[in-house]
Write a structure and sequence with these properties.
Length: 437
């Protein structure tokens, strides 16, 4: 049986109440809160750190490869029934995965891929091809299934995108088009260590920059540097820096200047597409009427079989938050939703059971996963996403877990992280709202 922690709250502080309290502001938490709010519940989302979406590519993968490494998969939904029973997709079911993606499509209309259940193949900044279910509109002209010849343009100051290197790797994969890479110096006086948001801001504002003694709008100046490099290619790919406020207008402007289609190649952290996705989801959540608080950690809770309230640390005080239903979506190892020390692996907010080491054999259906077993560590749940204790009984009757805090899958190997977060977030949020109402 789980027990409450005992450190006292701030004296006299009234609890902040809601029907559903979501803990965590990543993709799983945002989807949980949005699903619950659209179900009609009074929802509050609390998050300590910045969302890991800022470190993500911005692509939404459902399932690119099987746990055995087979793939890339053409239709991820067809493969879900064959996954291990402990996999989060098996717990929520194929229908819920589809419904969750529909919620995402409605909340983020700037993404494409909703017209088909087939994975799209997109080039990455490392030169590999990635199967993904949803992708930003800005990447659509760069699909690897497109046969048009391609020029990739790198920026001298951005060492994470070596365009000739990426082009060579793409060519080695056997893509059905000719691809070249060229590197230019970005127009303007940006420092060599400028953040991607600085490039985006300059293109958003279309501020004038000095080019051979005269001032030229930034978008035109960038096109002028690329135009002489074209050798008949019909599309040009840039690293994902083409604006934050209105990237579509920037792509259109560059395309008009160059006479080709322009696309962005998803990048590693820090990720501008990830920031755009985060902004879109927060905007949808705000429109749905949810309350949002970021920057303060959950440090304590009260309750045994049922969570009564949690405490958020704010300016040295412990502020009680009370809800009928709770969703834990604090992330995995990267987001510190799951942590480890010499004694093992643990979940730090509610001390939910994380199967590992000596008990991993029984929990993962008698299978050992070799090099990937650590990646599968996470909170064990029942089919309703309620965390289970070591004896497979519910830890708390009004708590569900969602996203990468869950165990039983390897999101990096499967290319399933975003899809699992969206599907389990949707399921947890919707079910929490239904119980609270």
């Amino acid at each position: 049986m789980s027990t409450a922690r005992t450190s006292p709250p701030t004296e006299g502080q009234m609890a902040i109440e809601s029907e559903v309290l979501v803990i965590g502001g990543g993709l799983g938490g945002l989807t949980s809160a949005l699903a619950a709010a659209r179900e009609g519940a009074d929802v509050r989302l609390v998050s300590y750190k910045q969302s890991t979406l800022r470190q993500a590519s911005g692509l939404v993968d459902v399932l690119g490869y099987t746990p055995d490494g087979d793939g890339p998969l053409t239709n991820p939904y067809e493969a879900i029934p064959s996954l291990p029973e402990t996999h989060p997709y098996r717990k929520v079911g194929v229908g819920t995965v589809r419904d969750a993606l529909s919620l995402f499509d409605d909340a983020v209309p700037t993404y494409e891929g909703e017209h088909t259940e087939t994975n799209a193949l997109l080039p990455t900044h490392g030169g590999s091809i990635k199967p993904t279910a949803r992708y930003p509109a800005g990447a659509s002209a760069g699909l690897a299934s497109d046969t048009r010849d391609t020029l990739l343009v790198g920026i001298e100051e951005m060492v994470d995108f070596d365009a000739p290197h990426v082009a060579a790797h793409l060519d080695a994969t056997g893509v059905p088009f000719d691809v070249r890479g060229e590197t230019i110096r970005f127009p303007g006086d940006l420092r060599a260590d400028a953040k991607v948001t600085r490039y985006a801001k300059l293109l958003d504002t279309n501020s004038e920059v000095a080019v051979r003694g005269r001032m030229v709008p930034a978008r035109e100046a960038l096109a002028q540097r690329v135009n002489p490099l074209l050798e008949g290619e019909e599309r040009v790919g840039f690293p994902a820096i083409l604006g934050d406020d209105n990237p579509g207008a920037i792509r259109d402007a560059l395309g008009d200047h160059l006479g080709v289609d322009v696309f962005e190649v998803p990048m590693g952290p820090p990720s501008l597409p990830g920031l755009r996705l985060e902004d879109a989801l927060f905007a949808a959540l705000d429109e749905a009427g949810a309350s949002i608080e970021t920057g303060n950690p959950v440090v304590d809770f009260e309750g045994e079989d049922r969570i009564e309230q949690v405490y958020i640390e704010k300016n040295g005080a412990k502020i009680p938050n009370s809800a009928d239903q709770y969703v834990l979506a604090t992330g995995g190892f990267v987001g510190k939703g799951v942590e480890s020390d010499r004694d093992g692996v643990y979940e730090p907010v509610f001390d939910c059971h994380v199967p590992h080491a000596t008990d991993r054999y029984d929990w993962f259906e008698g299978e050992l996963f070799g090099d990937h077993e650590f990646a599968r560590y996470g909170v064990a749940t029942d089919d309703d996403l309620r965390p289970l204790d070591a004896s497979e009984h519910s830890e708390f009757e009004n708590l569900r877990a969602a996203g990468s805090v869950l165990g039983g899958y390897d999101f990096a190997a499967e290319k399933s992280g975003s899809g699992v977060s969206i599907a389990t977030g949707y399921a947890a949020g919707q079910r929490a709202a239904q119980e609270a109402r």
